């Protein structure tokens, strides 16, 4: 199942990693382990953050995706299930509308 992880980096911890030159290597290591489909870095509410698209086959995979961000940067991580247009087409919206509409 495709999920979007939204990672929020605390300013102090990330600034320390930038200043000591370890931010890039830490990010590369975490992302290499996660093997994401896509990654985007952005600002959210004045804070550094990242959107990381991952494939999760089992809920038990979530800690291995989240813990590196928690332990390395003290980051906040939120998960959202995401669908492609094909996923939505297979969802049976017409049947659901007929039953619940």
Structure keywords:
101 residues, single chain, alpha+beta, Alpha-Beta Plaits
In short:
The chain is of the alpha+beta class and 101 residues long. It has helices spanning 11-19, 23-34, 62-73, 85-89, 93-100; strands at residues 2-8, 38-44, 47-55, 76-81.
Describe the structure.
The protein has 101 residues and is α+β, with helices and mostly antiparallel strands. It has a single domain, classed as 2-Layer Sandwich (Alpha-Beta Plaits). The chain contains 5 helices and 4 strands, in the order E-H-H-E-E-H-E-H-H. It has helices at 11-19, 23-34, 62-73, 85-89, 93-100; strands at 2-8, 38-44, 47-55, 76-81. It has a 4-stranded antiparallel β-sheet, with helices on one face. The chain is elongated. The mean pLDDT is 96.
How do the helices and strands line up, and which of them pair or pack?
Blueprint (H helix, E strand, L loop, with lengths): L1 E7 L2 H9 L3 H12 L3 E7 L2 E9 L6 H12 L2 E6 L3 H5 L3 H8 L1
Antiparallel strand pairs: 1-3, 1-4, 2-3
Helix pairs in contact: 2-3
Largest β sheet strand count, sense and barrel closure: 4 strands, antiparallel
Measured as a percent range, the helix fraction is: 40-55%
Assign the CATH architecture.
Answer: 2-Layer Sandwich
- Could you name the CATH topology? Alpha-Beta Plaits
Number of domains: 1
Query: What's the oligomerization state?
Result: single chain
Q: Could you give the count of β-strands?
A: 4
Beta-strand level of the residues, as a percent range?
25-35%
What distance separates the N and C termini? 27 Å
The secondary structure category is alpha+beta
Spell out the helices and strands N to C.
Answer: EHHEEHEHH
Give average pLDDT, whole number. Answer: 96
Name of the top-level CATH class: Alpha Beta
- The radius of gyration is 17 Å
Name the overall outline.
elongated
**Largest sheet, spatial ordering of strands:** 2-3-1-4
Unreliable residue stretches: none
């Amino acid at each position: 199942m495709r999920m979007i992880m939204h990672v929020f980096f605390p300013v102090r911890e990330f600034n320390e990693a930038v200043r000591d030159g370890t931010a890039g290597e830490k990010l590369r290591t975490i992302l290499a382990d996660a093997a994401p489909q896509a990654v985007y870095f952005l600002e959210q509410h004045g804070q550094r953050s990242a959107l990381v698209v991952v494939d999760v086959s089992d809920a038990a995979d979530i800690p291995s995706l989240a813990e590196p961000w928690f332990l390395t940067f003290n980051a906040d991580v939120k998960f959202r299930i995401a669908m492609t247009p094909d996923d939505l087409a297979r969802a049976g919206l017409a049947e659901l509308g007929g039953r619940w509409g």
